[in-house]
Predict the 3D structure of the following.
Amino acid sequence: MPNGPTTFDARQIVKRPEFDLQYRRDSYLKKVDLHHHDFYEIFFLISGDVTYTIESKLYKVEPGDILLISPKELHQIYIRPEREAYERYVLWVDPRAIKRLSTKHTDLTLCLDPGCPRYRNQLHMTPEDRRRIYEIVEKLYGELHDGEFGGELMPECLLTLLLVEINRVAQREAPPAGDVTRVSQVVGQVVEYISRHYGESLRLEELAGRFFVSKYHLSHEFNRLVGTSVHRYILKKRLQIARAMMAQGVKPSQVWTECGFGDYTGFYRAFKAEYGITPREYAQSVR
C-alpha cells in the first residue's frame, strides 16, 4: 500500500486507456458536488467516516466495503475527515473494457448493471473475501505504477481477476437490507420519476402535486437529503442522459429535444457550464 498523505484530485476522467486505479489518503476534503461519470466506479474504503448518496439511496460505508457505481447513477460523498483520515482505492473502468473482457458465458458487468435483479451498490465482505480482493487491488496498483517487466500485460489480467472475484461476492450476497436507507419515501419516488420522465416537463410544482406534497416540503427535503435542489438534480440527470446518448452516436442537435431542454441554446450553455466543453466537442471526442 502506498505511504503518506495525498492531495485530493477532483478530476473525473480516466487518464489511462480503458481503466485507472488511484490510491488516495486525505485528512481534508472540500465538499464534493453531486456528479456522475462516463465509466464504472469501484470504490474500496480502507478507513474514514464515509456516507454516500447514490440516486435516492443512502449508504453508510464501513472500512473493507466495496461500492459499485454505474455511469447511470448520480452520486455524492460526505466524509468527516476530522475523525479519521479518508483512505481508499478508486477504480475507474470504461464500460467498453469490461465488455471486451467478458465472454459468452461470463458477463463481468452483472455486478455493475443497475438493470440486473441482484444489483446492489454496496458489498459487505467476509474477512477472507476482503483479504483476497484487497490483495488483488494492491497488486494491480503496483503493476500500474511500478513499471515492472510485463507491465503492459499484468494489469489487464489482474483487472479481469478482480472483476470475477467481485461478481462472485455479489452473487453470494443476500439482497440489500439494513445497509440501504431510502433518503425519504417521497424523495425516492421523485428521483425514480425523474429518471423515467427526464424528457418531459418536470417543474417543482408539477412534481409536488403528483406526489401529494407541498412544493416547499419537497424542495426542503430534496435539498437536505440529496444535497442539491430539485431543479439542479433534473438538470444533472438530463445532462447525464445527453452525454450517454452522444457517446452512442446520437447527434447533439437531436439530443436536446429528447432530454427535455427547451431549446438548443439552453442545452449548449448548461452542457458547457457543467463539463467545460461544448456538446459538439464532446461528441467528437468520444467517436
About this structure: Residues 4-11 have pLDDT under 50 and may be disordered.
